[in-house]
Design goal:
The complex is a heterodimer of chains A (94) and B (117).
Chain A (H helix, E strand, L loop, with lengths): L1 H21 L3 H25 L6 H24 L6 H7 L1
Helix pairs in contact in A: 1-2, 2-3
Chain B lengths: L1 H29 L3 H32 L3 H35 L14
Helix pairs in contact in B: 1-2, 2-3
Classes of the chains: A mainly alpha (94), B mainly alpha (117).
């Protein structure tokens, strides 16, 4: 039964990847990649149960952390064109 | 008996989670612009991931009842941890995408104005 779960998550990941490739704007791509990452976390968890080694969940936690930080970093880069500058400086300059 | 009930409940949760996940992803594919796609992606993160993790949690409760408590208590703890983490990060990521898109000057999609208006 976990095979069906894994297959379903893989289908959803494929659809999200199609949007990431098609996506007209960069925000569509970031959104799709973020959704893809969330599905990867669930895929790792389901694979752990499928193979009888649920300790895989450690990898899922690490993947969730990396996915979140990566999404925020890419968005900040595209919003401000810089990773180091703070928003406060920009507000003060206006 | 108890384990059979838990098994059925867990599979109901997992099938429901898969349903929400597939519907949300089809929404990501078919919606017209970023802001509407965010709506679909949010459903994937709350209902899809939540129900799937609930199903896996029930499976690990079955593992605990089977006497494999040593392993499955930690599994249950980690599942709760993953869920709490997704609960906090997915709205933040969604908000960040929406704000970045607005800041980047992307106009929200509007229904085309009809000739009679």
């Amino acid at each position: 039964m976990f095979i069906a779960t894994t297959a379903g998550i893989l289908i959803a990941m494929t659809l999200a990847m199609v949007r990431a490739i098609l996506g007209p704007t960069v925000y569509d791509r970031v959104l799709a990649v973020n959704a893809f990452g969330t599905k990867t976390v669930l895929l790792i968890a389901a694979l752990g149960f499928l193979t009888g080694r649920p300790e895989f969940l450690d990898l899922a936690i690490v993947y969730a952390l990396i996915n979140f930080i990566g999404t925020i970093a890419v968005l900040k880069f595209f919003e401000y064109g810089d990773l180091g500058r703070e928003r406060r400086d920009e507000v003060a300059a206006e | 008996m108890m384990e059979m009930v838990l098994d059925v409940l867990s599979w109901i949760a997992i099938v429901g989670g898969l349903f929400f996940m597939l519907v949300g992803t089809v929404g990501i594919l078919r919606m017209p612009d970023v802001y509407t796609r965010l709506h679909a992606a949010g459903m994937t993160d709350t209902m899809g991931a939540g129900l799937l993790l609930l199903g896996m949690g029930l499976q690990s409760v079955i593992g605990i009842l089977d006497g494999d408590g040593q392993v499955y208590w930690f599994v249950l703890f980690r599942l709760v941890f993953v869920y709490a983490f997704l609960l906090f990060t997915s709205p933040i990521a969604t908000h960040a995408v929406a704000r970045a898109a607005l800041h980047g000057g992307l106009e929200p999609y509007r229904a085309p104005v009809e000739a009679g208006d």
